[in-house]
Every structure is written in structure tokens, then in C-alpha cells.
Fold this protein.
Amino acid sequence: MRALVGDLGYVARQGGDEFMILLPTDHEADLIEKTNTIKDALCSRYNIDQHEFFITPSIGVSLYPRDGTDFDTLYQQADTAMYHAKHAGRNRFAFFTEKMQATSTRALTLSNALHDALEQNEFSLHYQPQVSLISGKVIGAEALIRWHSKKLGHVSPGEFIPLAEESGQILAIGEWVVRTAVRQIQQWIEAGITPVRIAVNLSSAQFQVGDLPKTTIKILNEYRIPVEYLELELTERIVAKDPEHTVIILESLQELGIRTSIDDFGTGYSSLSYLQRFSVYKLKIDQSFVRNMTTNTNDQVIIGTIILLAQQLGMTTIAEGVETKAQLDMLNNIGCDDIQGYYISRPIPAEAFKKAYLENKQRIIAVDD
């Protein structure tokens, strides 16, 4: 970096793997060119002891006086832009914008509020019914977390889950979800109601923790709930991240009798050679394929292929995001086992789910034969 900057500016190590570069410029285009040169040099191939290494730098840029007139402000803005570049995929640079500042401020506010959310009992679970296309009855539900902050109001899971994963709070939140779902099953049983199987989503961080099987069975035993009433969902991206670790954890869960499924199937890059080794009983077809399946032949073919693959491997299939009768009928015709989506119901609170689907075990959809 010093060689590239030369006598034009200054290079200093801020700490850890962070460095600061101070450069004068008359034109933004010249700065972009220089930044690209630095990025390309850093991501070159390095050979150390017969091993090759690659660095993927993330660079944030702020400009004086546009983004600030003092060092602390300019450093903070460049730091914000750097994290934006990092989250956008690394090996790139980004110039600071006011939108980044708003996003950064919002993220900080949410992160601070998340620290108190569990203690303040601000989380709740909603349940979205899953319906068998053979019987037309509700055979399960997916538990979905909701956060209503006393300070910020309703916060979307799509906004706070990534922050919880980044901060490490997802482990405590994830265990809370499993415990709350299991406790809800217990309450239904104690009320004399036969529950359905509840599916709970796992984060990547939860799945990487080696004691996941032990923690899960401990919670089930604590509330005296049979293992067949709980299902753990992991995404295909989690599977692809470390297939060998996935096999070990899934086998441990299977030995305990805990069912697992792969969520968002078809959107990741899991190896088919590993899929045959995974101890899962269900593949969940991603809603991105279901959305346009009645008008897009490619989506139809993909869904049909996933269903055929599952059948050959002895797995069942469920399609999420079903919103129309036409989608339901097409899924039934090509052999999908179960569905969930707004055509049946949005995720609803536990009491509403009990009244609508547990106290009434009647067929809720008619499926054409």
C-alpha cells in the first residue's frame, strides 16, 4: 500500500486487519482509479511455504469536505462505507452515502434494543399451518418469530435476524424459539388438544454449535414432549457451508428421533453426493419457484425434478409460498406431499392457530383427484 501511495499520501495501521489511507485528489475519477489499483494489488495471489493465499479487501471511502470536515467524522464515514462493502460481498470498495448513515444508525439502534428484547419478553411466535395434499388436513405448522419492541414497535425478522446473527445473539434467540415452541406443544396437550408437528428454523450459528442435538433433546425431555412433535429446519446454504459437519449433526439428531428438513431447497448449491447421506425426511421447495410456476415452464420443471429427487431418496416434499388454487392444483398433480402459504393462512398467534386448526380437525382444502 505504501508503494502504491508513494509520496502522495499516508498509510497507517489502525489495528488488527484495518488500515487507513489518506490521499489528496482533485477529481473523484482519479480516486476511483487509485482505489481500484490498491484493491487489485491486495487481492493478488500470495505464495507462502508452498501454499497459495488470497486476500479479499473491503474498502470504504469518504471525501473531505463533502462527508465531513474533521478527522473523526471522516474516519467514521469511511468505516461505515467499509462495512457496507464487506456486507455487499467483499473484494470491493464503496463511497460513503447518507443512505449508509441512516442504515448504520438504524442497525445500531436495533442491535442495542435486541440486547434487552429477550429479558423484556418482546418476542412471540406465530404459526403458519402446513397442509397435506392427500388428506386436505393440517398436519403441521412452522413457528415464526415476531418482535414487537417497546421502543421501536414491530421489527421485521428480515431486519433483525441478520443483526442477531452478526452479534451472536442468535444463539440465545434460537434456543428461546425451540423452548417456546415446545412449551406451546405442552400447553396444547395439557388442554386436552392433540397437537401437530411444529417446525423450527435453525440459524447457521446454531447448527455450528456441537451440542445442538443435546440441547434440543434436553428441552423436549424438560417438557415431556415426544420427539415426533418437533421438526428442525436448516437451509440449503447451511448444508453447503460444511457438508461433513452437517452429516454428523443430522445423524445425531436422527439417532435421537428428531426429524429434520432442508428449507429453501433449490436456491443453494448443496452437492447431490452429500444429499443422499443427509438424514432428513423432507425437502421444502422455495417459494421463488412456486410464485411463477403456473406461467413459467422452467419453474415447473425445477419443482417436478425436486419432487422426483425426493421420492427417489425416500423423502417427502412441502412447497412454501402457495397463494392460489391454481398453484395448489399443479403441485398436487406433480406429486408434492404438503403445502403452506397465504392460500391457507398467514402466520397467526398460537391461540388463533389452536381455534382454527387444532380444535377443528376437518379437511380444510379440497384437492382435485
About this structure: The chain has a mean pLDDT of 89. The first strand starts at residue 10 and ends at 15.
